[in-house]
Automatic annotation (TrEMBL):
It is found in: Secreted. Binds 2 calcium ions per subunit. Binds 1 heme b (iron(II)-protoporphyrin IX) group per subunit. Substrate binds at residue 195. PANTHER family: PEROXIDASE (PTHR31388:SF284), PEROXIDASE 72-RELATED (PTHR31388). Its cofactor is Ca(2+); heme b. Removal of H(2)O(2), oxidation of toxic reductants, biosynthesis and degradation of lignin, suberization, auxin catabolism, response to environmental stresses such as wounding, pathogen attack and oxidative stress. Disulfide bonds join 67-147, 100-105, 153-355, 232-264. It catalyses: 2 a phenolic donor + H2O2 = 2 a phenolic radical donor + 2 H2O. The record marks 94 as: Transition state stabilizer. This is Peroxidase. One of its GO terms (cellular component) is extracellular region. Residues 57-359 form the Plant heme peroxidase family profile domain. It comes from Artemisia annua. Keywords: Calcium, Disulfide bond, Glycoprotein, Heme, Hydrogen peroxide, Iron, Metal-binding, Oxidoreductase, Peroxidase, Secreted, Signal.
């Protein structure tokens, strides 16, 4: 009983620290009569709203006047695409993460190679791995038809991540909008900021802190691995030679490990894939955390949340495994926080017409 009370208190302390750092800035409109709802420039492509009024935050109603149907358009494309390929929900959720951790949530991940920069698409964590670019293109072309030069590619990524979560059975949340698009990609930062699958817990904590995200965000956002797949190359080390002594990872449950070896032979098969949550790979739920409790986390970075000897993350894995609504609630908060990493607003950046390339002058 005392243990239970201790745990409950501890949980409140952990989660409340995250609530106070909840990155949605005080929702105060300072715009008086100045928002140009009449001339259509409010929230539009010229950035006059954020720029003129000096408001640099994001807010959910950003497109209420300039493109009220934006989310409906995103959702209708997602519904079709995810019905045909349920994994696409996972791929789009991940795309927003890989965008936000590199230079902020500015759609830099969507840029193809150009004379001015090397794209992020061939960086280690992305190469032969991230997918969903055609879906973003399809959404963008529908949005350009409905509301030309208005909805940024960075906001499309955020809307697609939320929509994909909802359509997979996960939580919904109010999504701050108004991000603008980068005119540069950052190949190097992709390699440096995105955590590798064999990360230690310390490494994960460090890379999340670098983005202003804490241990609660780390554990809840890792819960995105409740959907989607990973290639053998992302976890093979665990099956055959985790620590350079030709032994499997001792934290990996044996029968699960043997099953994985059939998908991932010792040599070859590096691009074969296996679900991150084998019990419900297309369903957003809390089984990801239950699997970790049973030694069935697929990646090292999943299992170390429990076995990495950091009390706080260990505790949160257990709490989320026991209480799915606690996980949903925190996931939504942490997604908003991740979505607020270093956005371009005001006169910074641009509204790309084509998500793969910067606008021509
Ligand atoms: C905590 C550190 C993280 C690490 C080390 C990590 C690593 C990985 C790796 C290695 C894969 C498989 C890639 C492949 O083999 O092709 C993957 C897939 C995935 N990741 Fe993460 N990830 C992390 C956090 C996140 C976060 C924060 C999100 C989103 C909020 C996320 C969403 C996903 C999704 C949905 C997939 C499946 C994608 C698909 O099936 O196309 N991950 N991750
Ligand atoms: C993680 O994997 C990389 C690439 O395979 C390897 O160079 C590195 O040593 C591994 N790190 C750990 C901690 O095992």
């Amino acid at each position: 009983m005392a243990f239970l009370i201790y745990n409950t208190c501890m949980l409140m302390v952990l989660l409340s620290s995250s609530v106070t750092s909840f990155a949605f800035p005080g929702f105060s409109f300072g715009w008086g009569g100045g928002g140009g709802a009449g001339d259509g420039s409010f929230g539009g492509g010229d950035g006059s709203f954020g720029g003129v009024l000096g408001y640099s935050g994001l807010f959910p109603e950003f497109y209420s006047f300039s493109c009220p149907q934006a989310n409906d358009i995103v959702m209708s494309v997602l519904e079709d695409v995810i019905a045909k390929d349920p994994r696409m929900a996972a791929s789009l959720l991940r795309l927003h993460f890989h965008d936000c951790f590199v230079q902020g949530c500015d759609a830099s991940v969507l840029l193809d190679d150009s004379a001015m920069f090397t794209s992020e698409k061939n960086a280690g964590p992305n190469a032969n791995s991230i997918r969903g670019f055609e879906v973003i293109d399809e959404i963008k072309s529908k949005l350009e038809e409905a509301c030309p030069e208005t909805v940024s590619c960075a906001d499309i990524l955020a809307l697609a991540a939320r929509g994909s979560t909802v359509l997979s059975g996960g939580p919904n949340w109010e999504l701050p909008l108004g991000r603008r698009d980068a005119t540069q990609a950052n190949f190097k930062e992709s390699n440096n900021n995105l955590p590798p699958p064999n990360s230690t817990i310390q490494n994960l904590i460090t890379l999340f802190r670098r983005q202003g995200l804490d241990e609660v965000d780390l554990v809840s956002l890792s819960g995105a691995h409740t959907i989607g797949m990973a290639r053998c190359t992302s976890f093979k080390q665990r099956l055959y030679n985790q620590d350079g002594n030709n032994q499997p990872d001792s934290t990996l449950e044996r029968t699960y490990s043997n099953g994985l070896k059939e998908i991932c032979p010792k040599t070859g098969g590096d691009s074969n894939i296996s679900p991150l949550d084998f019990s419900s790979p297309a369903r957003f739920d809390n089984t990801y955390f239950k699997l970790i409790m049973w030694g069935k986390g697929l990646l090292t970075s999943d299992q170390v949340l429990l076995n990495g000897n950091v009390e706080e993350t260990m505790f949160l894995v257990k709490a989320f495994a026991e209480d799915d609504s606690l996980f949903y609630d925190q996931f939504a908060r942490s997604m908003v926080k991740m979505g607020n990493i270093n956005p371009l607003t005001g006169f910074n950046g641009e509204i790309r017409k084509n998500c793969r390339m910067v606008n021509q002058l």
